[in-house]
Amino acid sequence: MIKWMTKLFSSTPKEENTEDNMKPEVHEHQKNNLKNVSKKYLIVGLGNIGAEYVNTRHNIGFKVLDFLAKKEGLSFETVKLGALAEYKFKGRTFLLLKPNTYMNLSGKAVKYWMDKENIPLENILVITDDLNLSFGTIRIKPKGSDGGHNGLKNINLVLNTQQYTRFRFGISDQFKKGQQVDYVLGEWDEEEKAKLTERLEVASEIIKSFGTAGLENTMTTFNGK
User: Fold this and answer.
1) Binding site for tRNA: residue ranges?
2) What confidence score (pLDDT) does residue 2 get?
């Protein structure tokens, strides 16, 4: 009798103790917002605006995005702090951004569009040139220093972090002492031009892979190639 009375008064209705009732309610619009954020990517190509810079080594970020846009029939629209094109692929949305702030203020455009589109840091890919890699060599890294690159330096400063993915495209360092600026802001030579289209094709695949296969798989597949 005592055991029965103890059991009776100590028991709690089942519905009050279930884990489901202890979880916060997530409304449908909240689920949709989380879903959309995870499938949206900001792809930033670094470069300088102006016709005189179009075919220069320093503008490889713009070049990659222009190549992908032309291949997929996309158009860039002039927007705040840059030019933007939207690319849909396998359920993902890629926002292709070419900042118009000039290289050393690139972070301003990255931060603005990252916040405006509610894109998480891990879904950002920044494409830049790299003197320390031979022509066309690809290096994808999840973080790192600016390596002396003014565009990355400003992005690091504005975002207050180095924890974002960067896609470095090698332009080599075949210049004489004191001629680095002329080399970087110079146009591709004939040998480089002949090989550039194939490298741009690979770069386009990297962008798609970043959003669909993930960073680790993309690094494994493309780094050093």
Assistant:
1) 53, 102, 104, 150
2) 44
